[in-house]
Write a structure and sequence with these properties.
The structure is a single chain. The chain has about 500 residues and is mainly α. It is about 80% helix and about 0% strand. Helix 7 (about 110-125) packs antiparallel against helix 8.
Length: about 500
Amino acid sequence: MVDQLFQLIQSLSKTEKRYLRIHASQHVRGDENNYLKLYDAINEQQTYDENALVNFLKLDKNKFAVTKNYLYNFILDELISFHDEKSPQHDLYKQLRQAEVLYDKHLIEQAKRIVDKLKKRANDLEDFYLYSRALELEIKMIHLLNNVQEQVRKIRKLVDENKEVWRKLQEIHDYKQLYYMVTCFVLQFGTLNQAEIIQEIEKLHQNPLLQDPQRATTITSLNYLYSIQYRYYQMTGNDEEYHLYSQLQVDLIFANPKILGYTPLFLLSRLHSLLLACIATYKFQDFDRNYEYFEKFELQTKHEESRWRFIKYNVLLQKYLVYCDFEKAATLAKEAGKLFINKEVRVSDMQRTVLLLQSCYLLLIKGEYKIALDYANEILQEESSNLRGDMYNVVLMFDLVLHFELRHYQLLESKIRTARRYLNNQNSLGEPEAKMFAFFNKAIKTTSNKELLILYGELYEELKNLDAQKTPSPIFDFFDLLSWAKAKAEQKTFVAVKIEQKERIGLLV
């Protein structure tokens, strides 16, 4: 288990570390405090080594534990202060407390001046909860007026104002709930029956809040709406709308940084989605414009750097696949494989699997089967329970195709049985997989190239029929089996068929 204090220190940005050192130095009296020595020692470690730290500080285990606990809480307190200083909301809550203190002292005019400014600023930042608290304080002030008619008039006006504030709060809450529900569908996509999830999200999308954009009357609501819409269209395969709402959300974030208060990781996530949407819609000028901003992104923490590296490889590998630039793709795939197999860049298991899967596929297309097989084996060594179901099914098919290409026929026979048994147990053996299993079983027993070419042709026709019927299958989503079978049947390279395919539909010049 990774130590909590080590994780916290490793997550600090350069700016946070500088702030921490300045404020920590104010607490030093005489010799440097043990907790500062501990901070510097942990900051230098690449992996946590508690014994080395204990020996360095020459403390017994009880005193060491106390020092660690003190340092952990000190860092958290300083981080709160650091981020509060940068937060406009923090200043507003401070002003509210000032107004409350002045009210308690019956300095009503002074309190009212602060509240008037506070309400305008809270409205501009869409902090409607703070706005409602300021209104409550203002109503209390009105009770101190001597003129009853004036009291009634002002209270009624403030009640109407408060009603509108709570309407906006409710609106934001409703959009937020829809966003959380869509997020659950996204997380389940690929682990459960996709048709059922699509049916559920289609039902959710009929909500009037999503059908009528005019209902989103705040920037915060619009942000949730755009996020819901791009996820919905991404899952339902409408790439143009997916791109539209991805771009709208990124533009909204850049236009309203103080309201939306995005973190670097949040913005990286949205840029990632937009870049993939540009690729999906072949809007490469949009891609280049957004990627230029992405490349210049200022990274402060190791977490941000890891996320940035993952996005870079993910979008460029996808771009090269769509562009059919397989030379660049193969070079980048090998670079990514080295980094992520050796875990030189720390990313989540899911992100690592995605990149290895992309790299494996691109090298398979390029005909570099041995390296591609290394990547497939790396994924298969993971516990299947740690991988999304559709990804595991795809890598099983990659594994079979690669062993077939490398003529590992004896091994392939047992692998087909294992893969079939696994897919049956998972209730995910679809028609494409069944067709491929049948093909492999026949192909490894053929004795002539002529027979093999006939089998390739039959497989191509069968897969073409399934594709025409829009047979749902994660295999078809990740792996262009149809082009692979066509290449084999026509005795061409996989690369040549992919390029012909794009030229035929006018996507390559």
